[in-house]
Design brief:
Length: 196
Amino acid sequence: MNDSGRSADSAAGSKRKDARRNQRVLLDAAAAVFVASGVEAPVRDIAARAGVGVGTVYRHFPTRADLVIAVYRHQVETCAEAGPALLATAPAPYAALEEWVGLFTGFLVTKHGLAAALRSDNAGFETLHAYFLDRLLPVCAQLLDAATASGEIRPDVTAYQLMRGIGNLCVGAESDPRYDARLLVGVLVAGLRRPD
């Protein structure tokens, strides 16, 4: 391959990388706006938070459903990738678990609003829910196993039980300003600790 072919490949790769970065910025902005204002928030608010024009949002996500699904998948991936990274950097497995549960809780508060927006497409939502479980159950199990092996937590709670409990505590949190799901999830996670 000659130099012009290599530079064309390099330019194309750079454009793809920029497009992925721009899409990530849009998804992060949409998630933040959804948390603050709900999934029916105006697209102009998402565009403003991302620092782009409204047309850019529609170019990436032609419909609101496309955007909602993309935010959901993006948040699942962010949560899934965070687990191993936290285990590698946290001072102890329990600290990694606590931090991951905080991220997971933030996602769940948003997820309930996303779920409501997707109710008209039940089959699509079921597919997304299966994706959610397939990606996040193993991550939660890895964190629990590490904290159990280190002797920091009790061994009798499964990843599914913990995720289901956290999910139940998050129901309705997005629409009730008097309810702090994070506080109660913190109590739940603290209850996993072995007594000294």
